[in-house]
Amino acid sequence: MTTISQTVPGTAEKSAIRKICLRLVPFVALMFFINFLDRTAISFAGPNGMISDLGIQVAQFGLASGIFFVGYILLEVPSNLALHRYGARRWLARIMVSWGIVSLLFTWVSSVQGLYGLRLLLGVAEAGFFPGAIFFLSAWVPARYRSKILALFYLAQPLTVVFGAPLAAWFINQHGLFGLEGWRVMFLGVSIPAILVGIAAWFYLVDKPKDAKWLTTEERVWLETELEKEESSKKTPHGHHGLRAAFASGRVWMLCMIYFGFVYGLYALAFFLPTIIGGFQQQFGVTFSVLQKGLITGIPYLVAAVVMFFWSRDASRRGCKTWHIALPALVGGVSVPLALYMDSPAATIAVITITACSIFAALPNFWTLPTQFLSGASAAAAVALINTLGNVAGFSAGYVTGALHDATSSYTVPMMVVGGFMLLSALLMVLLRATQRPAKPVSSTLKDSHSAKAV
């Protein structure tokens, strides 16, 4: 893990990072907000009319939720390599407009087979967005700022549920608008922004610091110099910039397995939390309106956003250490099955909140790891590969959770599986740190700005 010892930042350094935080990160985070909302919109539609209207079972709903990842997984690495070749501005804009159009088609889905097909096509359209955004933002700042930048970016994901759940509920309550059921109105309402923001991204984003007119000459020189130092530090006699470097790295494959556990927990929570809340009436004898369910769904994610921000800020100050990733995984693995043994809705949501905090506290710090020892095309490929294989969990979480629920008529076993995968991630993170070799200093210049131990 990288432990950072910083010198006092100069004026150009502070102003350059501040401008990136204000100009780039919020816009890419907005894209991520819309991305995650469109991807998980099915979780709001399911218990609010779609399941009954289309006549589907919980296992079929789980399959529809997870089949998204089939196309997503197949095209993830090629998409990120295309982004590296053609530039983030064009590629991210193209991805966003594509998925917005596909998401819009859910408004008129009429069968479970059509639902499967559109979810598969949505995965194809979205492939490469998330790792592309991670690679893009990582390429704009030196390593010592990546925890901060990625944490600000990642805030969009929990906030998608905080604001997206009530927004989705509001759309669902517009039942009858344009002659559509409420859940169809919801798909219409959350899809149009993707198309509009995707078009805006083509004109707003900038691929590299040298092309950013909003940076001063001093800021550009400092930024390009720092980034070039880091790129040089990653080079070996055999090169560390090829596609082969990513696929041949044992560390990359270990990171894939660690990420699997986080994503499994993330999507099990995202896809089934609204359904679990919907079951409070039968379990505890309490009834909530659609809007109330949306607000309750947002509670764990609002707290998680706050915890993630401060946890990542601590990682940025201390240097990202093993426990910044392993400890949240451990807490999440223990807490997630406990939620099902609580005796009230409030206690259940409180424990689920701990789980959400754990997942989101770990994720931004996790994504600082691949670019610590890879760069260029190899870094783009590594980020995409980790996200690809990790997102096998996205398919597994939806399908396995639904199938186990149907088999046992309970969420107890499915949530035990979620906890097990998160505990495995914690263990693998500790093993990765224990088996790594300390990095050798690569240059006195780099040592002056920060000392690093590559994962």
Automatic annotation (TrEMBL):
Its main location: membrane. It comes from the Bacteria. It is a multi-pass membrane protein. CDD domains: MFS_ExuT_GudP_like. The chain crosses the membrane at residues 20-37, 57-75, 91-110, 116-137, 149-172, 184-205, 252-274, 294-311, 323-341, 347-367, 379-399, 411-432. Keywords: Membrane, Transmembrane, Transmembrane helix, Transport. One of its GO terms (molecular function) is transmembrane transporter activity. The keyword Calcium does not apply. GO terms for cellular component: membrane. Pfam families: MFS_1 (PF07690). InterPro entries: MFS, MFS_dom, MFS_trans_sf. It is found in: Membrane. Residues 24-437 form the Major facilitator superfamily (MFS) profile domain. Component of the tartrate utilization system and may allow entry of tartrate and tartrate dehydrogenase. This is Putative tartrate transporter.
